[in-house]
């Protein structure tokens, strides 16, 4: 299967640059994965498609302000560091721009020395391991100095960094938001629970590998980066209960999907579990636990559109995307949503 099989034309003006004032007022395209039929709604109408006994799975990861702007000590060179993954204590795997001169031993300063760092190694794909030094609590310094790591296709400044967090974000560790969850409000979540729908919270810390472009022609040659996930006993019980009673498990976002599919056994049963996953879901994949998916509209030729295509069929998904373009839906992280059932 070729990367180009997942290409579609997208006018640049349909890439959403800003979040809507009311999270739940975004548009919702509903795709019937068997027939390919689509219908158009407002996101808060999602409740009409959820049934009593269903289980909605959400990813409660929290995005850290992982983008640091600083300089190389001893020079005037400006540098940008993106925190990708905490390796141990104060050592992080990072993406550094520009990276060529950042050899092992290079020392960096952020916020007039409030935070300093030293490159201690160069690892896979040129990422740098940096050991940070500071006084106080790292998370508090990061909150003071760091910026939200918005995707490169968003060129506007984000006025309120909480708008790149879900309302249920809890466990810090992501370099990007699980954006399908951005449409939910506390009121909408309460309305869902009042209808007898269980909400299971899982955690997957989103790394930039999820969004890294597929560069190989044959998609099976693409390698996914690993990301840390965690499913507790309560979430596993809720998901299993829905499966056992013949109800549906509907994931909010590709990250929640990848989490439960990584943890499920052959029968779709889950146990409390944590670990690292590099699962790559593309057409031909047999889903074990998932029955439906709430997701945003994804980049052409991305692993994310491949995952949605595995659930609903490539032709159905591309036809739905074509319809969304025609109807002027808003695309990508701050854009509109799609329900696949």
Using only C-alpha atoms, the radius of gyration works out to: 20 Å
Q: Total number of helical segments?
A: 6
Query: What fraction of residues sit in β-strands?
Result: 25-35%
User: Mean pLDDT, nearest integer?
Assistant: 95
What is the CA-CA span between the terminal residues?
A: 24 Å
The CATH architecture assignment of the largest domain turns out to be: 3-Layer(aba) Sandwich
Reading the helices and strands in chain order gives EEEEEEEEEEHEHEEHEHEEHHE
> So what's the CATH class of the largest domain?
Alpha Beta
Shape field: globular
What layout of secondary structure does this protein have?
Layout: E1 27-31, E2 38-42, E3 55-59, E4 61-63, E5 67-72, E6 78-88, E7 91-97, E8 107-110, E9 115-122, E10 128-134, H1 138-145, E11 171-174, H2 186-194, E12 198-204, E13 227-231, H3 233-244, E14 249-252, H4 254-263, E15 273-277, E16 292-296, H5 303-312, H6 314-326, E17 337-340
Q: Which tags fit this structure?
A:
single chain; 341 residues; alpha/beta; QueA-like; Thrombin, subunit H; 6-stranded antiparallel barrel; 6 helices; 17 strands
Walk me through what this model shows.
There is one protein chain. With 341 residues, this protein is an alpha/beta fold. The chain has 2 domains: 242 residues, QueA-like (3-Layer(aba) Sandwich); 79 residues, Thrombin, subunit H (Beta Barrel). It has a 9-stranded mixed sheet. Strands 5-6-7-10-9-8 form a 6-stranded antiparallel barrel. Strand 8 and strand 9 form a beta hairpin. Helix 5 crosses helix 6. It is globular, with a radius of gyration of 20 Å. The chain starts with 26 loop residues before the first strand and ends with a strand. The mean pLDDT is 95.
